[in-house]
Design goal:
single chain, alpha+beta
Length: 78
Amino acid sequence: MEQQAPVKIDYKGQLVGEYFADLLVDGKVILELKAVEALAPIHEIQLKNYLRGSQVELGLLLNFGKKVDVRRKYVSNS
């Protein structure tokens, strides 16, 4: 497990930027950590965009706000 792991973002095969994943597990799962009252749709969109732009297909969005909330996202990059 790697904290603040750099994840390269490609668009149509061209490097367009770099995102630092909160946690990257074995290069296969991005964990996006939040501490907000409630998750908003923008949080899920953010994670989906990270998955689409990287070679990582699975992501978990974890919120440690008032109530613990976990959401799983999968994006096929093939």
